[in-house]
From TrEMBL:
Pfam families: NUDIX (PF00293), NUDIX-like (PF09296), Zn_ribbon_NUD (PF09297). Gene3D superfamilies: 3.90.79.20, Nucleoside Triphosphate Pyrophosphohydrolase. Belongs to the Nudix hydrolase family. NudC subfamily. It catalyses: a 5'-end NAD(+)-phospho-ribonucleoside in mRNA + H2O = a 5'-end phospho-adenosine-phospho-ribonucleoside in mRNA + beta-nicotinamide D-ribonucleotide + 2 H(+). Transmembrane segments: none annotated. Keywords: Hydrolase, Magnesium, Metal-binding, NAD. This is NAD(+) diphosphatase. It comes from Sphingorhabdus arenilitoris.
């Protein structure tokens, strides 16, 4: 099981982030590679990989974030000022469907860091402006010197299971026919299992008891998130929708899930794309004995 945005081949090189001399050396390395972006979207080469340039090939005015090392070559992404919405960018969905898993993982890291920097230009303690430090893995307030570091928000994403069927739902912003697993942020003072049960009940009115963890995935859109995929045992199959959260929800069999995952003509819904953990979770459940 290899969820999307995992499997980056880069050594994150934490040892260089606070090493002034070591970081200066990688910045001046003529072999350094710079990730090419179109706004916030990845640029895909003719052979389907991420596009890179060398420092010698381009003049970089933006600050650089060190993504890591591969074969001792430093890899950077420029800190661009841009906004993006994955649900309204067909270009990024096409790019992610083409990229190898390793390249998607590299892009996911870059996108998460850029979004974090663009939303943390001011100190949450005193309101002063912040500046990049630690090779792009932090910001420091220019007024009170408070240090800020990238954070990941925990999210549960889950299937409720009852009588051999799984519960899936759709939001109004989804393309027609698309369904996915239910999901929601963990709240303060809440365990992962409690969040799974609460979200399923809040969104679909279904009561669950036993919860089992399946896998996790970093998700770089809408803020950096860690998606924790679970399956919950439901008490019954009666659905009471929260229409502020979901447009529709339904129970599907494993055969119907397999049809959706393979794109069969007879499918009753469209599955999430392969790089989404909802796809991984649905596939795991459909193939489980």
């Amino acid at each position: 099981m290899n969820p999307g945005f995992t499997g980056s081949p880069l050594d994150r090189a934490d040892r260089l982030r606070s090493d002034v001399d070591g970081y200066a050396a990688v910045l001046s390395d003529w072999r350094a590679r710079i990730l090419t972006l179109d706004g916030l979207d990845p640029v895909v080469t003719a052979d389907g990989g991420l596009a890179w340039s060398t420092i010698a090939e381009i003049h970089v005015e933006a600050e650089l974030i060190l993504l890591g090392l591969a074969d001792e070559k430093p890899h950077f992404v420029p800190l661009v000022e841009a906004e993006g919405d994955v649900f309204r960018s067909p270009a990024i969905w096409r790019a992610l469907s083409m990229l190898p898993a390793e390249d998607a993982a590299i892009y996911g890291t870059a996108r998460s860091l850029i979004d974090w920097h663009n939303s943390h230009k001011y100190c949450g303690k005193c309101g002063g402006s912040t500046s990049l430090f630690r090779a792009g893995w932090g910001r420091k307030c220019t007024a009170c010197a408070k240090e800020h570091f990238p954070r990941t928000d925990p999210v549960v994403i889950m299937l409720a299971e009852y009588d051999g069927k799984a519960l899936i739902g759709r939001q109004s912003r989804f393309p027609p026919g698309n369904y996915s697993a239910l999901a929601g942020f963990l709240e303060p003072g809440e365990s992962m299992e409690e969040a799974v049960r609460r979200e399923i009940h809040e969104e679909a009115g279904v009561q669950c008891v036993a919860v089992r963890y399946v896998t996790s995935q970093p998700w770089p859109f809408g803020g950096s998130q860690l998606m924790m995929a679970c399956i919950a045992e439901a008490h019954g199959d009666a659905i009471t929708l929260d229409t502020n959260e979901l447009e529709d929800a339904m129970w599907v069999t494993k055969a119907q899930a397999k049809d959706a995952l393979t794109g069969a003509d007879a499918r009753v819904f469209n599955a999430p794309p392969p790089f989404a953990i909802a796809h991984t979770l649905l596939k795991y459940w459909a193939e489980e004995d």
